Amino acid sequence: MSEPSAVRRYAVQAATAPVFGRVLASARHHHLVVDGPVQNGCPGEAVTPAELLFMAVATCGVELMQVIARDGGIPLERVAITIDAFVDRERQPRTDRTHFNEVRLHATLQGPTREQARELVEGFQRRCPIYGTVATATPGGVIVDFDVA
């Protein structure tokens, strides 16, 4: 197996749709409908941008834990991640940007020992740039816990 490149490049597009607050997004040949939240007067029927962000963190975590387990010979039958986050626009740490006030991530792993599970979770935290970006931008970082089923 050849060594993967250290450089990753990503390109996506987004444009308005005929419905106010609805966005058509594309990455390569994949297309999504994204809605702004109802609090902004948008439809809120399709997945929202914040939900997409946290889906990206969760999917990055699941995928990377599989890769790290495979590469380290750690038994991993299943991994699931749930994320709970909130924004309180009246309690922001800065006045020039809106941040998530709190982000909680919980992982459930099946197969590894507790120590191996910790290794997988910490490996994902070090390696996923989406997680790293969210953790850096969230006051107090992301609160992470896990259990082994």
What would your notes on this structure say?
With 149 residues, the chain is an alpha+beta fold. It has 2 domains: 1-47; 49-148, GMP Synthetase, Chain A, domain 3 (2-Layer Sandwich), CATH 3.30.300. It has 3 helices and 6 strands. It has helices at 49-72, 114-127, 129-137; strands spanning 12-16, 22-27, 30-35, 78-86, 102-110, 143-148. The strands form 2 sheets. The protein has a 3-stranded antiparallel sheet with strand order 1-2-3, with no helix packed on it. It is globular and about 50 Å long.
Task: Set out the fold topology.
Layout: E1 12-16, E2 22-27, E3 30-35, H1 49-72, E4 78-86, E5 102-110, H2 114-127, H3 129-137, E6 143-148
Parallel strand pairs: 5-6
Antiparallel strand pairs: 1-2, 2-3, 4-5
Tell me briefly what this model is.
The chain has 149 residues and is α+β, with helices and mostly antiparallel strands. 32% of the residues lie in helices and 28% in strands. The protein has three helices and six strands; from the N terminus they run βββαββααβ.
List keywords for this structure.
GMP Synthetase, Chain A, domain 3, three-stranded antiparallel beta sheet, 149 residues, three-stranded mixed beta sheet, alpha+beta, 6 strands, 2 domains
